[in-house]
Amino acid sequence: MDMSGGSAEGNDKSEGQRFSSKNKLTALVVDNGGVCRAIQTALLRSYGVETEAVEPGEAAVQLLASGATFNLIIIEMLLPVLNGPETARQIRAMGAQSKILGITSFFDGRQQQEFLAAGADGFIEKPVSPEIVIPIIWELDN
Amino acid sequence: MERIQMRRQLALMRQSFFDQGFLDEQFIQLEELQDDANPNFVEEVVTLYYRDSSRLILNIDQALERNPLDFNKLDNYMHQFKGSSTSIGAKKVKAECTQFREYCKAGNSEGKKDKLGPWRQHVAQGIDGRGQKKKQDLTWQNIVIDKSKIHTFNHQKNGCPSGITMFWFSM
């Protein structure tokens, strides 16, 4: 899955239009940083994606274990107790088909390998920007 | 009229933060997330950033006092600090975090107690972004004009990045 680019199709605020998902999409943000959680959640919601946010990896695992499903799950690398890759691993072990995007503050090749080996579809350095998110939403939408 | 002038002043101040490299385009993304449904989003997020940053800087201060230095702990704090700074568009803080982490990595890999030495020395000289020498002691400069203007906090301490500027708008 191409996480690196893609056109911000339809994202022209100056004409009063903003890119929005056609279908009802859902997302889960897993980040122990309040600022990051708030911004990522608001960004996804601005594109019409129903988004929940949790802080620890265990909460994400419990949410999915309880039957919740998400089209997209964004997971921070350095989470307390259950780290990002382990969270992704446990989510995949439950059979979840969600797109999983690993994120980090400092890009590291080893962390990328770890996340991808755990079942993530991509791994990026913050910030989670429209340039990253819009192609993902577009792909999920179509 | 006073309101118009104040708004103009705020707009100029805001632009100066971009011109001086304190903010990058990520802050504009943040502003674009504010709408009728979230009318105070920017202020809420920046306030949250300030609170979290204060806590993280305190943790870093305390970690820097330990002997030997726990580089893993420092690395984790910097990871969090950089993450939130990047997300909010605090460009200079982000750059300082990156530099700080480089020193942490160097210290950790060589097993030397104070590889932060060169970076500490830089800060100890109290050279801020304008190249002016300042005192080495801990000083909080809390310039509060009034609630409708920009609040700027400067944190300068030996061992911490000089010139970290945290701000929030209260419109």
Automatic annotation (TrEMBL), chain A:
Which first-to-last residue range defines the signal peptide?
A: none
- Give the matching InterPro entries: CheY-like_superfamily (IPR011006), Sig_transdc_resp-reg_receiver (IPR001789), ST_Response_Regulator (IPR052048)
Q: Which residues form the Response regulatory domain?
A: 26-141
Query: What PROSITE patterns would the database entry show?
Result: RESPONSE_REGULATORY (PS50110)
Gene3D superfamilies reported in the protein's UniProt record: 3.40.50.2300
Q: Which Pfam families match?
A: Response_reg
GO BP annotations of the record are:
phosphorelay signal transduction system
PANTHER family (alphabetical): HISTIDINE KINASE RESPONSE REGULATOR AND TRANSCRIPTION FACTOR RR-A-TYPE FAMILY-RELATED (PTHR43228:SF17), TWO-COMPONENT RESPONSE REGULATOR (PTHR43228)
Protein name as annotated: Response regulatory domain-containing protein
UniProtKB/TrEMBL annotation, chain B:
Q: Name one GO cellular component term.
A: nucleus
What the protein does comes down to: Functions as a two-component phosphorelay mediators between cytokinin sensor histidine kinases and response regulators (B-type ARRs). Plays an important role in propagating cytokinin signal transduction.
Domains as described in the record: Histidine-containing phosphotransfer domain (HPt) contains an active histidine that mediates the phosphotransfer.
Q: Please report the stretch or stretches of sequence annotated as the HPt domain.
A: 44-123
This chain's source organism reads Lithocarpus litseifolius
GO-annotated biological processes: cytokinin-activated signaling pathway; phosphorelay signal transduction system
Q: What is this protein called?
A: Histidine-containing phosphotransfer protein
Q: Which GO terms describe its molecular function?
A: histidine phosphotransfer kinase activity; protein histidine kinase binding
Which compartment or compartments is the protein found in? Cytoplasm, Cytosol; Nucleus
| Top-level taxon | Eukaryota
Checking Pfam families in the record gives: Hpt
Q: Where would one find the signal peptide in this protein? A: none
Q: Organism classification, top ranks?
A: Eukaryota, Viridiplantae, Streptophyta, Embryophyta, Tracheophyta
Keyword terms of this UniProt record? Acetylation, Cytokinin signaling pathway, Cytoplasm, Nucleus, Two-component regulatory system
Task: Specify where it is mainly localized.
Answer: cytoplasm
Annotated coiled-coil segments of the chain: none
